[in-house]
């Protein structure tokens, strides 16, 4: 008896854009399989260009469906009745509701499975999917990759003297009730597909490249590799106060460690992009993919409140002694800069969270140089601001204040005069305000 289409199975004779509707419906439901090269009645017809069809399908899923559904899909060629077809497996996604990008979160863009058909979701069903997603996170979903090894994780647990046997793996959440590996297991495994990239730059324009690192494999190993690499670029300077020698690294090691751990623990692993770190002469930027969780206010973390996106991953880090308590990381970062005039800066967007640590030794050198000469007069300072802007590309009020040793009010006044004179333009508002040179 030939198989028939069902809630979890659909046939497509050849490539069609309607495949994306089915992918969305399966990802919004409990998953399913699409067989491309099979007629509606279950007859295998095969595909003439298997590779080309597979490429069209993967490109379609990558560019036409939002949020990114590719982590929950797998497209592979198989033999059926002596002919080659494509099998597209779609798992239940953690970013529901999924939708057609050009349609948006409307019934015409959101599909769900109804029997053997993919149909537009009602407004009520879309709202229900959004509510359901708050309690469904990436780390708890079933991993598409089940052939996993844990050499790096075994070593990390052994070094911490923490058991990591079958019972512990299930308790921690690496193994689901049905015995399959979860995405938490994928993150800790040697096959982890997520990477971290670090670049060292010789200038703010990112034109003078000095060094780089791209880490792969278990995120436990990535943490160690990233920390070691940043340590090599965290120079130590010395100064004498009387007969005492004072050694100070560019960045407090605890601040670097906490910022890096924050990037790993709080990132949104349903998004495929890499975590990034950039080392400049005057600052270190650590950027984590995934903004604040939807229910968290932008000011909450300043009070030490922790809203965990990856609770089970945070628990693993806690058991390994990598983090001491939830919600203390940012407090520790700020505390390590308490005797420094320029505190760490936090920026966030819907899908990005960035911590900027400023180079204490570079700032001290700049401060000594500024102190040795009187601040320029307002007229010459305007020319100096334009020269500084020409070199950096963009400026903030804080850049001007620090460079010329003037108050915030004076820096704002100078910048406003240049805007009024048509020399520069202002973009953004509040802490995100930047200034650019006017284009002639």
Give the N-terminus to C-terminus distance in angstroms: 74 Å
Number of strands: 19
Helical residue percent? 25-40%
Low-confidence stretches: 366-375
How would you characterize the overall build of this protein?
This protein is α+β, with helices and mostly antiparallel strands and about 450 residues long. The protein folds into 3 domains: about 10-135, Schlafen, AAA domain (Methyltransferase, Cobalt-precorrin-4 Transmethylase, Domain 2); about 195-360, Heat Shock Protein 90, CATH 3.30.565; about 375-435, Winged helix-like DNA-binding domain superfamily/Winged helix DNA-binding domain (Arc Repressor Mutant, subunit A). It contains 14 helices and 19 strands. A 6-stranded mixed sheet has the order 10-9-13-14-16-15. The chain has a 4-stranded mixed sheet with strand order 1-2-5-4. The longest helix is centred in the N-terminal third of the chain and has 15 residues, at about 50-65.
Write the SSE topology.
Blueprint: E1 9-12, H1 19-28, E2 32-36, H2 50-64, E3 65-66, E4 73-80, E5 83-90, E6 99-100, E7 111-114, E8 117-120, H3 123-133, H4 151-159, H5 166-172, H6 183-188, E9 196-201, E10 209-215, H7 219-232, E11 236-241, E12 244-249, H8 253-266, E13 275-279, E14 283-289, H9 311-319, H10 329-336, E15 345-349, E16 352-358, H11 360-371, H12 378-392, E17 394-395, H13 397-404, H14 408-420, E18 424-427, E19 434-437
Parallel strand pairs: 1-2, 9-13
Antiparallel strand pairs: 2-5, 3-6, 4-5, 7-8, 9-10, 11-12, 13-14, 14-16, 15-16, 17-19, 18-19
